[in-house]
Here is the input.
Amino acid sequence: MSPAAVRVVHYMNQFFAGLGAEEAAGHEPVRLEGPQGPGRGLTPLGLPVDVTLACGDDYFAEHEDPALATLLAWLEEEAPDVLVCGPAFNSGRYGYACGMLAREASRRGIPVVTAMFPENPGVIAAEGGAYVVPTTANVAGMKDALPVLAAIGVALAEGRDPGSPEEAGYLPRGIRRNEVVDRSGADRALDLVLAKLRGEAFETEVAPAFEVVPPASPVPDVSEALVALVSEAGCVPQGNPDHLVSRRAHAWLAYPIDGVASMSADAYETVHGGFDTTAGNADPNRLVPLDAVRRLETQGRIGRLHPTFYTTTGVDTPVASATRFGQEIAAELVNAGVQAVVLTGT
Amino acid sequence: MATITSLPTIAQMAGASRIVRGPAITNPTGDPSLDEEEEVALRTKIVERALEMVETDVEPATVWEVSA
Here is the structure.
């Protein structure tokens, strides 16, 4: 039994829980007392499991809503100090179930640690809600994964910060935290550039996170397609009738361009606050290439230009807002039957 | 969709798949140093590259130059 102060719940699939292999993948969620399978390896590492929840991989995949509802109801009853999921290695269904449960449990305030292969879709499903320990693709990495999993689990259960991804051995969750340091940014930047010039090892403080989005399938023949123009260059009709802001936009706008041959400086301007707009205001086609697209439309290189163009200001925009703009504009475009988009970014 | 920008790295960070490198931040589809006719021709070429890219199967975060 765990110390009274700490309660641990472990989620795993049918195979690791000993319910059966592929033939048991349709198994409904079950609640089992004490550690099962790999959970037994957590006890000597200081993280004795009180209750194990298990579910068949296919059952979770095919009945996600009821499976999650059952598991979350049990979690609410158990009120664990930490939830451990997996390790799932590179099993896609198992990893996905771990990631989804981790995400939902973390949203309900339960700290979660899981472990899987970094390219398992479960990592994305967890949406940063869980500490994800990277593992090998197959179960051979179990003995390396468990101590890291347990150490993070113990820290979370005791309400401690497990430390940075590098120190504690989990995948970065895309979270930036402020910390106080002795030396100014200028000093640290000089150290980095000098280290780089000397060919020494150095670590960039703010590593960009690259979001990988699967590319859309190609449009077989753009000469048959409805094509739209979208821009974040802050282009609006002269006088900015709808008051698009010059930075930190909270909205996007749509303007008709049916019958408009060119983004002439008489009729359009840019209000973007993130770059020198002299060239863009002298000829807004430098930001939204309407004259060129009309030329290509006349030549039959595109089927037709969508009669509306979409615009916003892309500077200092919170990612959450920009994501929403993209989703909303994309929904309009899809509704209008647009097949291809040319987006200009400044 | 194809994105025309002079900052392909930023577009890559945002998850863009089809990126054409435009001339400058201030004029992704133009070049004020050219005369008008040359500039429209350049702009047309940039847009044609973007359309060509839309017709092509790509890996995530692919960047094309205007002149292949």
About this structure: Chain A has a mean pLDDT of 93. DSSP finds ten helices and 13 strands in chain A. Residues 7 and 80 of chain A are 5 Å apart (CA to CA). The longest strand of chain A covers residues 8-13.
